[in-house]
Amino acid sequence: MVQGKSRWFAIGISVAIGFWSATWAFEPLTVARSEVTGAPSKSAEEKVLDELENRLNKAVVQGDVATFDQLFAADFTHTSQNGRFRTKPEWMKGRVQGKTNYVSFDVEGVQIRICGETAVVTGLSKPSWREDDGNLANGRFRFLRIWAKRGGRWQVVAFQGTRISEEKE
Predict the structure, then answer these.
(1) 136 contacts 128 by C-beta, under 8 angstroms
(2) Cβ–Cβ contacts within 10 Å for residue 73, how many?
């Protein structure tokens, strides 16, 4: 009886080692991990896109129309939180360099996924702005931004924002 239990124990250990080995064998080798945090380290392209995202966030608060014009592709489309769809010329119309209603534009939870010459950026923005009557307003929005690499440089081709409801489910 002891010999039977030993055999099942050995089989169990072998199966466990096999599963453990298989998980290591199929782990992607292309993802480098930070030795301190265990989080994936950023590729060179992700770092470039992260910097471009930071430039856009600063441009919102500074009213930097020149940055928008440079980073938005000619065929850029913008879908607002209320569903309004605009082309680049429609979105840029009436914007004046250095003029903005935004007081702050904080972003967190940014994820960058690169698929060849296209990148998908998602995150949570928490802007505050002055309404036309001067009152301060703020909100929380999930956003999706699509970048395309054209002629060796990244450009935004599409954006969509969705307001996060304050209601508890």
Answers:
(1) yes
(2) 16
Element (H, E) at 83: none
CB atoms within 10 A of CB 125: 19
pTM for the model stands at: 0.74
Low-confidence ranges of the chain (pLDDT < 70): 1-40, 167-169
Q: What was the pLDDT predicted at 27?
A: 36
Name the residue ranges covered by the structural domains of the chain. Answer: 44-163
Whose CA is closest to 147, among 139, 156, 138, 137? 156
Determine the Cα–Cα distance for residues 26 and 147; give it in Å rounded to an integer: 30
The DSSP-derived string for 27-79 is S-SS--B-TTT-PBPPPHHHHHHHHHHHHHHHHHHHT-HHHHHHHEEEEEEEE
Query: Residue 143 and residue 29: Cα distance in Å, rounded?
Result: 30
* 44-163 under CATH 3.10.450.50, yes or no: yes
